[in-house]
Amino acid sequence: MITSLLITRSSRNKTGGLGVGVLRKIVARLSCLFFLLLLSLNLSIDGIHSGTSPSSSIFASAHWIDPDTPTSAHKTRPRRVPGVNPNQRPWKPPGKKLKSQNPTFAPSDYPTLDPTPNPTIAPTEEGVEWDDIYHLVMSDEFNVDGRQFQDGQDPKWTALDKNDYTNEALHYYTPDNVETSNGDLTITTEAKTKEFVGYNDTTGDRQMYTKYFQSAMMQTWNKFCFTGGIVEAEIELPGVMDKGGLWPAFWLLGNMARHTYVGSTNHVWPWSSNACTEKSRDSQKISGCKAQHYGLESKVGRGAPEIDIFEVQTGTINANEGIFKEISVGQPFMSASYQVAPGRANNRPGGGWWPGPGQWYEGLRGGTNTSLNILFYGNYNHFRGDSEEKDYWSDAISFNHQLDERHFSQKFKYRLEWGLPDEDEGTDGYIRWYVNDEFVVDMNGTGIVDAGLGSTISTEPMYLIMNTAVSSQWGFPAKCPGNCPCKKYDCNSKHYGDICGFQPGFCDMMTNTTDLPKYKVNYVRVYQDAKNSKQKVGCSTPERPSSKYIQSHMDQYKTRDDDRPLKHVLRGKGACILLESVSESDSKAKSGSESRSLRESCGGPKRGECSALKTCVCHTGWTGPHCLVPDGFNSIDYERRETVEDLGFTPPKVENLYIWRSLLVIALTVMLSACLRRQLDEMTPVEVVGKNIDDTSVIGLR
User: Fold this and answer.
1) Which of 153, 225, 532, 639 ranks highest by number of CB atoms within 10 Å?
2) For position 663, what pLDDT does the model report?
3) Secondary structure letter of residue 700 according to DSSP
4) How far apart are CA 368 and CA 570, in angstroms?
5) Is the pLDDT of residue 24 over 90?
6) What is the mean pLDDT of residues 332-358?
């Protein structure tokens, strides 16, 4: 094509010549365009053959990374599990069928105690190296003071502003109780009265309610979610180790449920069953037995399993005493749990008893100072108006790990490693917990699959939650003290009946305004394996979509007073606020200080600036009302766009390869022709010098 466009010397020398420099420019530009054409065709064809764009081959990729995260923290490796070769992949035959749905009953109502409440740890494998490197996909260092987390203020997090109706909660969640300062995110819990308008569960009418504690819950629901990977956070726990009553937690929940919005969780939490079983047909809201709509894949069960990185309980009951008589871990402890449904309907161990043969899951291992949590094996779930056939058990596969006073005065690193099931590799996934890189718990997904209930290690996109709750179900006296009604819990009350239900010293801690319990977070980081195509960032993925379902059921994910579940994040437009006082004695100093203060109130010169209207304007890459936080978004948009096929029309099929190749060739040919014509139109012929110049002479002289 290039040679056909060149103009020969003999055809031009009768009227004038082309300059050598001009001709060289033409050839150079044509060569460059030809090279780009070949490169584009090659990349396009390669991308079409593989079914992906070139960039989509990098799966562990997302724009959620805090620029303050140290470079040294941008990669990590899975931690060692004592006695396990990290590169050995267990084999199991493909297409494994579910076991019987009717397990036999235990041989005895009084199973024997576990003979080894303090299991020994196998020696670490020597000379073994981890193959996988995980790359950072999300981080928040919380280094910027004054961030706001109300709905619509932050791209990653939302601090709830609502009542908590779950678990006999005694608190109200408000953004007022969370802040960033001194390099930490801090959740403060206090004994403070909150009156609000709520809805009666029975009548549905609006009425006034009162809670006597305020706290905060941070969620990344429907903003940042991930499927598989590693989560790590450095946290100092709130309160005092021997004063029971607080319930701090750091956990993951499937995006199909939004915690505290009970309409979204009923028959969804904590289901992790993709298959069709008799129980899932009746009890699972989105079961694998039905054809689905709203963009959901037909006959693939969906739900919201729960992974608790920790739930912490404080108190004074030691190991092998009281309710902890039969286990080697007492208060304070952290509970590391995987809560999943469907659970075991029959042949369940009783609370406080060690499981008998065949009563619980296999493939569970605990580390040092860790014990199976025999006090809580799960819940029986019944919802108002449901028939008995819709009721179901959910199981809490849980271990308790011993804590001490250091965890409440220093920051410890809490880490979760979540491996996804992989049919191609013949593996069932795993979940592992670590504290300060010391092994705590290992759950092998094969033990969950082998239970034969249809449950698996979670394959749902899950979001992060950090909160401190106050509940009479957690850390309060096991039995109500004598002559105490235990119906109202108000630390600020002067009436005995309102304060007698607390643990000793709890109200003193909650009313000490100079030293309230604080949940401090130095950072949160999430990593994924760039080579693992099953690990993804996004709340709605091709394998587990949710966006259309949530849009079609918005009422279940918001309060009646909300227009939508989440507001759009405000970018700038916050008022420029004076951040420091200025002495009235020096007006010049005052003016300069005010100017500097206004600039800093919009994140400083790198993040934003204060406009003439005294509102913040964010620079590229920064967002929030005061431009204090980096923008965040998913690198790959998995959302499938509406097509004519959604309307029932199937267009003729044409090979995508030939369509893209033809369109690309046409587009580049048009651009090439236009470029060449422009160059020719701009050229000025050079007059021929002398009369004896023939066809063998040069075509241009200078």
Assistant:
1) 225
2) 78
3) -
4) 47
5) no
6) 95
